[in-house]
Amino acid sequence: MITKAQLQKLGRLHGTPLFVVDHEALRGNYREFKRYLPRVQAYYAVKAEPLPEIVETLYKAGASFDVASMPEFRIVHENIKHLSAKKRQDWIWDKIIYANPTKPADTLQKLNRYKPLVTFDSFEEIKKIRQYAPNAGLALRLQVPNTGAMVELSSKFGAAPGEAVDMILAADKAGLTVEGISFHVGSQTTNFDNYVQALSLTASVFKEAKDRGYTKMNLIDIGGGFPAPYDASVKPFKELAKVINTEIDRLFPKDIQILAEPGRYMVASAGYAVSKVIGKAVRGGKMCYYINDGVYHTYSGVIFDHCKYPIKAFKRGPTQMCSVFGPTCDALDVVSMAENLPNLERDDLVYSVNIGAYSHASATFFNGFPPATVVHVNQ
Ligand SMILES: *Cc1c(COP(=O)(O)O)cnc(C)c1O
Known about the structure:
By secondary structure, this protein is α/β, with parallel strands linked by helices. Helices cover about 35% and strands about 25% of the residues. It contains 12 helices and 16 strands. α9 (about 195-210) links the parallel β7 and β8 (about 220). α2 (about 25-35) packs across α3 (about 50-60) and α9 packs parallel to α10. The structure holds pyridoxal-5'-phosphate. Pyridoxal-5'-phosphate binds next to α11.
């Protein structure tokens, strides 16, 4: 945990906008995940925040990784460069999943030598994998309900349950090995029933595949979606883990391998944003603050991630309802239209917590404003 006072000190020391990563929080989140889901191997979804320092800390903690592009693959690979070719190969084989169901042909070509585990969700992808990465192991990405998730993924990804086994058999016929089933219940899933339904659909696909003669599957990948504690309405991870453990024990044999791809859960609570008031105005009777970070930068999750990050002041005092705007010349650059803040002056610092996931990861250089400076603590 970083205290408010520490955060303010960091803001003053390093300047703003600042993105602070607490590595003790990363290690804590990884430990908690393992503690409550002991049967599950955690593959950190690098896209949530691909900073190499974060990948390194999770690597040292024992994590595996979910990558979705060659640059993400290389960030993870940096940590195992020093290993012998054989050991590196084994590590990649055991600890990396390439979980982007649709892959460019040249990426498959580059991945082939590592015998990677990759996901797929179309007949077209089977043809591509057979041609460019015949050494790959496959996991079928299944379409599952994303009801109530903050970020919905089921319209873009996943084979419909009705065609899943046809696809598995097609891959088998193409000479490929389908090792199991993967799914994603939608990011920031607070509706735990999504996991129950997804596991039940997965079990039916396993059964149908077996009935139709395919018996090589021994892996389930329960994806991401594990919610970050953004507010008090999010039930504890422990409760979700209990639901998942119960269903897995009920539906699957003891020796099945279980993977998960937590992204948000690992990094959200490890990230802080500190920025500074650069201007103010009263518009239509409402106080408006302009800060030096916004939705093209660390607050990009407001747009891409459908996430809200309360803005907090270091200063105390009576509060009023305000708007908080980012620094660019775009009217879309609105951090919030409803924040209760004390009266702030130019150069006063403000901050947000729980902003480690899908934030700095999607920051741009729009309008000449670079992404926030990154500082690592408790590394
Ligand atoms: C983004 C993504 C994840 C991570 O999801 P979270 O909701 O952040 O845990 C996991 N798996 C896949 C395939 C993804 O695309």
